[in-house]
Amino acid sequence: MSPLQKTAAVILCAIFLLMVLGTILVPAPHFHQFRDVPNASPSTAHPLGTDALGRDSLSRLLYGTRVSLLLAPAAALLSTMIAALLGSAAGFLGGRFERIVLAVTDLSLALPWLFLLLTVRAMLPLDVPPMVSVVIAFLMMGLLGWQASVRVVCTAARGIRDSDFLLLARSSGCKPARLVLCHVAPNLRSLFYAQFWISIPLFILTEANLSILGLGVMEPMASWGNLLRGFEDFSALGANPWRLVPLILLVIVVICFQLVLPSQEVTQ
Amino acid sequence: MIKDEKITKLPWNALRRLLFLLCLGIGGAFLSATLVRFAPGYGVQERELDPRWSAQSIEALRQKQMLQEGLASYYMHYLSALAHGDLGESDSLKRPVRELLRQRLPATGKSVVRGLGIAWLAAALLASPGLASRGWFYEASSTAFSSLLLSLPSAVVAMLAVQLRAPVFFAIGVVVFPRLHRYIRSLLVRSYNQPHVLAARARGLRSGAIFCRHVLPIAAPPLLALLGVSFTIAFGAAIPIEALCDSPGLGQLAWQAALNRDLPLIVNVTLIVSLVMFAANSLADLTSRAFAGSVQ
Amino acid sequence: MIRRLCVAFVLTLVLCWPSFVSSESASQSGGELHFCLHGEPKTFNPLLVEDGQSEIVRYLTGGVLIRLNRQTQALEPALATSWKTTPDGRTIIFHLRTGLHFSDGTPFTSEDVAYTVKALMDPQLHSPTGDSFRSGDGQVSVQTPSADTITVTFPAPVAGLERLFDQVAILSAHSPKKEMAVLGPFYVADYSPGSHVLLRRNSNYWKKDKEGKPLPYLDSIRLDIQRNHDIEILRFRRGEIHIINSLDADLFDRLQKESPAAAHDAGPSLDSEFVWFNQVPTAAFPDYKKVWFRSTEFRKAISLAINRDDLARIVYAGHAQPAYGPISPANRFWFNSALPVPKYDSAAALRLLAQAGFRFDGGILRDSSGNHVEFTLITSTGNKPREQMVTMIQQDLSQIGIKVNMVTLDFPSLIERITRTFDYEACLLGFTNTDLDPSSQMNVWLSSAENHQWNPKQSQPATPWEAEIDRLMQSQASSTSDKKRKTDWDRVQQIVFEQQPFIYLINRDAMSAISPAVIGSAPSVLDPHAFWNADVLRLGPDPSMGAQK
Q: Which position has the higher pLDDT, C412 or A234?
């Protein structure tokens, strides 16, 4: 591990720790409105000020951090699993199957999945707890966000299929199950791990994008994307620089995730 | 002999691939029609809430909407119209889809191409001198810069572009640049570490000569493939950016169509977007294969 | 190599530069007013107008017989010099101005009016403008005794008949340009979809100013199509547009701090925001909830427990007034000023709930059978004030032990739920009112109507008070005496206040931004707020036309 990676890992751990401790130390519940002080500047009672409805910004930030940092890995896990299955199957079977999988991958990038998100929301009963609907939103992102990884996994799997050691193993009468378990899986494991790690910041960013477009985590829940929605007013940011804190935290976390990853595994 | 056969087969193969992709595109269009059709709020219009309408008029509105309800018949109808080059009429904008696409596609195409131009130039410029000079500070700061851009959500980039009144292509460039920079840099690092390049450097060749004669030939094929990939990235980024910047392009059209459940428009936009993506990816595939072949 | 690349980079920048320097800041000639449309106008046919954008174009281009003065709220003669309604309220006789011409030079006669009215009353037309004239079955008869007189007879009395003609732009019966030949101050000269609509001065416009100079003063109006309100205000700041007709409270607040001279708050508008509970008998939620929502005490208690002052102060930055009834105080004639103004009082709300059998203990409200009182309030995604109001109501109601879940849905999904599936418990929406006359709200208040949101399309009125509203609405619609109609309407407002089928929250102010370069502006609470007098607006000598200095 390089010093840079170590620093990044330490920062990430610190943020995780802050998130856990934050739930104990928060100044107020993230949804409580202090209606006498909307849009307040930082003070001892509200270290990061309050939002338009008088909710404590620090509490919302800590809560949002918890939502984004816990659920993005879950989405990443789901999407990596899908990509691993599809990609390795395509890579091993090759030929027409591979071409179809890759074409479908391209196609799925062009489809309006927005409607699936809307349909799923419509099928849920209206009174599901907000947390459940947030979890479902992240799972949907995971379910729909596997395209980038499939190509990488597929190429790697094709490489292993054509490799000499596999040919040797096969020629020496190795059974398919043993082939997959002892020869293929160990070779792909580090790739899956890398893909999972790459996907986490991607899903953090996806959530932010969706929430800014009004499709992600809904009020009164807080998430990083949700907190960035108050960002339209750039002219006011100069006077209230503390409003930038959610964005800065997001950028720091995403950069740290990128740095922690060993660089040779950065493919695309 | 075998070679000859390959050459005569080439057009046939290309045609088959084209046909396959076209079918896939139409399949995608159907799939998106299904998604829209079963999305909540399909066939519901905002104007139904206008109390000025009489009950008879609302009934008439709903009847008109009902005509499109059958999905299977919609598929058939769409296919036969498509065969005649007719893309139908947009429900929400009341204009022929063809006309809308003809207006919007060039605008988006222009922003994507310009955005790509900026992103490639910036990425290439930032990535190459650093390797030649191997300055530690330059390296670290350019990497930090691109990581910073990579960690900005593209919606935030779009919002920034709106505030600074920067054009859409600039935002697209900002979104695509860090991805390109990372890849080009690692590619060049790998190329510079090749034994024969190292040997050339040891012999004291000028950096320009090393770059042109030794590095570029290794890096060119993956770079060409990257061109295709970056096109799909830029095209994909253009849609939310245009929607947020409210720029009259394909992205904004798609976004409005989605909000209005405009079935004919969404189906055709999906078809176009998927065909463009296929074309870019196939081109990338072909070039990289062709180069791989020539190297072998 | 590097140098060559640098040259290429600079070249690209130069090539791209024209789009960096936005073309909209091109210099101004004479007087071209600029402002934004928030979407594509769907039609230029004035009879088919149903969306706000087309409405703006119609207002600026259409010549009407009678114009409602947006400031005095009185009817003024326009193409008709005078008019008379017969005592039975079915017939109206217009005397027209003579010697007028459409924008393309076609002469204007009573034949054109007859053509317009017939086209408008065609049962196949299906347009809101035409529908508002329909009072009973039967044919509308039109007579043109002379070139400057026209008589229109309706099958049944139409309430507030004259006022409806404010919406009817007269078409030419003979012009080859069809609906593009107009009688208003401007005509549509160019339309580029997705970009702009250009209106030019109609030199055949009938109106003159006091010195006898022909109106309008402006040479042209450019309407840029721009959905994004943030971009709109940025462009206003840069002086690229002169007017923002309707501003959100937060943007208004921001503008007011920067350039107070450009920000105009004309006071409460006709628009209202309200909450209602789903009282549809077949709705898909448990029966005990239906009992709550049908209970008058429950609805009144909710109304009492919502802090409207806080909504107006925090969500609208003070640019809204608490609302308690269907008619905004901005509607001077029809507003029932005798209605009491209730105060926010959660203790009174709890007392009312106790009367209705609810129990409040341990911070939780339960009904008589022990169910925890909890409901989901839906509203539309992307509407920030509405989302904020729901969040605030959530906290207000939690103080009387009610748990409110908030769900935001995109507009089509929301409409589907409130008009088709009735799969919701409570909804917060707004009502944009363009019309002063209450008969425009017939389809809201009649229990048989589509837009009777809390329980639409009833075959029989479900409650005695709905039956009474039905009776009063019918009675006012068939009367021609404004005094009688006002008495009926006051009673309807009284009933709505007592029963709270809609729990009115606020009336937002009519906020607009007008650049100091625009001379002659007089913002009004009625739509179009900022440019209702477009024909007398002109641009000052200030060439920068900016709002900043």
A: C412
Work out whether the CA dihedral C465, C468, C472, C477 comes out positive or negative: positive
Q: Across residues C262-280, what is the average pLDDT?
A: 92
Q: Quote the CA–CA distance of B97 and B88 in Å, as a whole number.
A: 6
Two tokens at B131?
A: 């390797």
d(CA C356, CA C297): 6
End-to-end alpha-carbon separation of chain A, Å?
21
Q: What is the mean pLDDT of residues C205-227?
A: 89
**pLDDT tens-digit profile of C125-150?**
888 888 888 877 778 889 888 888 99
Contact list, A208 vs chain B (CB under 8 Å):
153, 155-156
Distance, in Å, from the CA atom of C135 to the CA atom of C139, rounded to the nearest integer, reads 11
Q: Which of the residues A68, A212, A217 would you substitute to probe the B interface, choosing the one with the greatest number of B C-beta atoms within 10 Å?
A: A212
Q: Where are the domains of chain A?
A: 3-267
Q: Residue ranges per domain, chain C?
A: 29-62+184-242+515-549, 64-173, 268-508
Cis ω before C528 (30° cut-off from 0): yes
Q: Fold for C29-62+184-242+515-549, please state it.
A: D-Maltodextrin-Binding Protein; domain 2 (3.40.190)
pLDDT at A25 over 80: no
**Architecture per CATH, A3-267:** Orthogonal Bundle (1.10)
pLDDT at residue A263 greater than cutoff 60: no
pLDDT reading at C299 higher than 90 = yes
- ipTM confidence: 0.86
Give the distance between the most distant pair of CA atoms in chain B. 89
**Has residue C165 got a pLDDT over 50?**
yes
Write down all domains in chain B, each with its CATH number in brackets: 89-295 (1.10.3720.10)
Pairing state between β C374-380 and C364-366: unpaired
E strand segments, C132-252: 141-146, 149-153, 186-192, 196-201, 220-225, 243-244
Give the N- to C-terminal CA distance of chain C in Å, as an integer.
49
d(CA B201, CA A229): 52
Which pairs with CB-CB distance under 8 Å and at least 24 residues apart come from B20-23?
Answer: B20/A99, B20/A103, B21/A103, B21/B275, B21/B278, B21/B279, B21/B282, B22/B275
Out of A115, A213, A250, name the one closest to residue B36 (CB).
Answer: A115
Q: Please write the tens of the pLDDT for every residue from B130-171.
A: 555 556 777 778 888 888 888 888 888 888 888 888 889 999
Using CB atoms, pick whichever of B49, B100, B252 lies closest to residue C415. B49
Give the pTM.
Answer: 0.87
Residue C376 in contact with partner chain A when CB distance is under 8 A:
yes
CA terminus-to-terminus distance, chain B? 19
Give the type of residue at C399. Answer: Q
Provide, as residue numbers in chain C, all residues whose Cβ is less than 8 Å from the Cβ of B115: none
Is the model's pLDDT at C464 over the cut of 80? yes
In chain C, pLDDT over 70 holds for what percent of residues? 93
What span, in angstroms and rounded, lies between the C-alpha atoms of C549 and C545? 9
DSSP H or E segment with residue C409: strand C403-409
pLDDT at C473 over 70: yes
CATH class, C268-508 region = alpha beta
B39 contact residues in A (CB cutoff 8 A): 115, 118-119, 122
Q: Are A116 and B35 in contact (CB under 8 A)?
A: yes
A95-116 per-position pLDDT tens digit: 788 888 888 888 887 777 778 8
Q: What are phi and psi of B254, to 5 degrees?
A: -65, -40
**Which residues have CB under 8 Å from C372's CB, separation 6+?**
C364, C365, C366, C403
CB B247 within 8 A of CB C195: no
Cα C450 from Cα B238, distance rounded (Å): 41
d(CA C326, CA C335): 9
**Cβ–Cβ under 8 Å, residues B67 and B77:** no
CATH of region C64-173: 3.90.76.10
pLDDT of A268 strictly over 70: no
